[in-house]
Amino acid sequence: MDDEDVLNFVAITSCDPQKAAQYLGLTDNNLEQAIQLYFDSPNLEFGVTSAAPQASTHTSSTAHNPIEIDSDEDMSDAGIDTQGNTPPTHHGTVEDDAAMARRLQEEMYGGGPETDVRAPMQRTTETLVGPGANWGPQDSEADIDALVQEQMARRRLPGRPGIFNQRTTQTSVWDSAGADSSARRRELATATGGASESSNKSNMLAELYRPPFELMFQQSWDKARDEGKEQEKWIIVNIQDPAIFDCQILNRDIWKNNDIKLTVRENFIFMQYAKDDPRGQQYINYYFHARDSQDAYPHIAIVDPRTGEQVKVWSGPPVPNPVEFHAQLHEFLDRYSLKANAKNPVATRKPERKKVDVDRMTEEEMLEMALQNSLDNNKGPKDDDPDALTKVTSAGGKGKAKAEEETVEATESATNGSVDSPFAQISTSNPHTEPAPGDAKVVARIQFRGPSGRPIVRRFNLADPVRRLYEWIKAENPWEGKQGEDFDLVCMGKNLLESLDSTIGEARLGGASVMVEFI
After folding, report:
1. Which helix (H) or strand (E) segment is 516 a member of?
2. Nearest to 339 by CA among 236, 231, 261, 221
3. Which secondary-structure segment (H or E) carries 330?
4. Nearest one of 22, 12, 25, 29 to 44, comparing CA atoms
5. In whole angstroms, what is the distance from residue 174 CA to residue 169 CA?
6. Rg of the Cα trace of the chain?
7. Can you tell me whether residue 85 is helix, strand or coil?
8. Are 217 and 168 in contact (CB under 8 A)?
9. DSSP one-letter string for 303-328
10. How far is CA 46 from CA 25, 65, 95, in A?
11. DSSP strands (E only) in 241-282
12. 443-518 adopts what CATH topology?
């Protein structure tokens, strides 16, 4: 027997070495099992006494009780043969290992009336529950599948929880500002993985940047859609990257604003996920196409629970201030409705980007385009706002405000007996006479690039209105086969139709290149 095991046993149990050796002997020198056996049954009666006490006893009594050595036959009868070997089975006074084990088992589990027998453990039946479980009482408020998914998601969440990466906790604690402060502190510690308990400042920061647990809908995406259809509420989703501070600003300023919280509670079902949260992957895969771009965070979107259509998006910085965001929410609610008889705005087709003909661009235009592309390349993609397309009219791709202005102008023109557009009002019988070459401060040379690709240069006075460019092309169209067709004049990406009454000098067209695009 290893003396080190005996010493360790004594150090842990504080029993005497002799008893430690006996327990180790019962467990075949397994220290852990011996210690466990000792704590379960510290008062075991051992049938085998040690040799040392026997020797001392006999020594002390030799004066009155001399030792008698039995004959070989007596030793054989006692269970030991003449060669000193113990037979496999014997019934002597010395207790073998098997007998001791049976006795100990009887004492621990099935002893007589004098032993303290522990009652048998009650039989139980348990059921393993996995994803997709749909059993349980139909009227129960608990969603078994949602609870399972939440437990699995908690185990798969990447990264350690902290002040800026808090985990979802019970909503009941956060519903009321007058809730038990100790309970709120405990839940905050759970959400931050204990980080909020390191100091009072950490606790204050954790509370300041705490996600809006009291607003969050904690069940699955399908449950959220069902809830939205039943209560006629929109679904508003916030996807965050904890490493981007703009997302933390949302938790600090937007979702804690009382007016915004009241609006969200009354009209929306709110869901918030980190970008790596498995519970939000269904939404991210279907709707959040720019999820790999840091410039697309924070991401907020409104989804129609009936059709699953994404109808409004806020993507990327800058984060709107609370007053502005609250106004945008109410503007959305004024324009959209979940009532069965309501007619919501319909998004028009996203305007296609015009193909740029590099061969027809001037050096200045190419330089400007290269500079713009360089600026755009430093920014990642963002998700487009579908609601912005509902404000674009199909005619000309002008904004809603611009379309309303033109509607008013058209109404006024109709009152005066004319409904012609600004382009139609330009004269077609006013040919242009070029001024003599002169001072560049008075005369400007303008290069026109049409469909043929060959540039045409004409001189104009800087004091002439931009309208003269249109009048010249309408009266003397130099491009064969294009006579009588409508056209646009574009310079540096700007449609000159918006500057008809400005002078050529004011429009900075001196020495410029103007694109003639026939419609």
Report:
1. strand 513-518
2. 231
3. helix 322-335
4. 22
5. 9
6. 45
7. coil
8. no
9. E-TTT--EEEEEESSSPPPHHHHHHH
10. 11, 26, 9
11. 268-274
12. Ubiquitin-like (UB roll) (3.10.20)
Q: Determine if the peptide bond prior to 212 is cis (ω within 30°).
A: no
Per-residue pLDDT 10s for the chain (519 aa) are: 678 888 888 888 888 888 888 888 888 888 888 888 888 888 776 654 444 444 334 444 443 455 555 554 444 444 444 444 544 444 444 567 777 877 776 776 555 445 556 777 878 877 776 666 666 555 554 566 666 666 655 555 556 777 777 877 766 667 665 566 777 788 878 878 778 888 888 888 888 888 888 888 988 899 999 999 999 999 999 998 888 888 888 888 999 899 999 999 999 999 999 888 888 888 988 888 887 888 888 899 999 999 899 999 998 888 888 888 998 998 899 889 998 888 888 766 555 555 556 666 677 777 777 776 665 555 666 777 888 777 754 334 444 444 444 444 544 444 444 446 788 888 888 888 888 887 777 888 888 888 776 788 888 988 899 998 999 888 888 888 788 888 888 887 788 888 888 898 888 888 888 888 887
What amino acid is encoded at 5 in this protein? D
Distance CA 116, CA 130 (A): 42
Q: Could you state, in order of their start, the residue ranges of all structural domains in the chain?
A: 3-109, 144-208, 443-518
The residue written with tokens 């001024």 in the block is 435
- Which tokens hold the place of 497? 């139709």
The DSSP code for 17 is H
242 alpha carbon, distance to own chain's centre: 8
246's tokens: 């703009």
Q: Which residues contact 111 (CB under 8 A, 6 or more apart)?
A: 117
φ/ψ of 499, rounded to 5, equals: -125, 35
Identity at 348, one-letter amino acid code = T
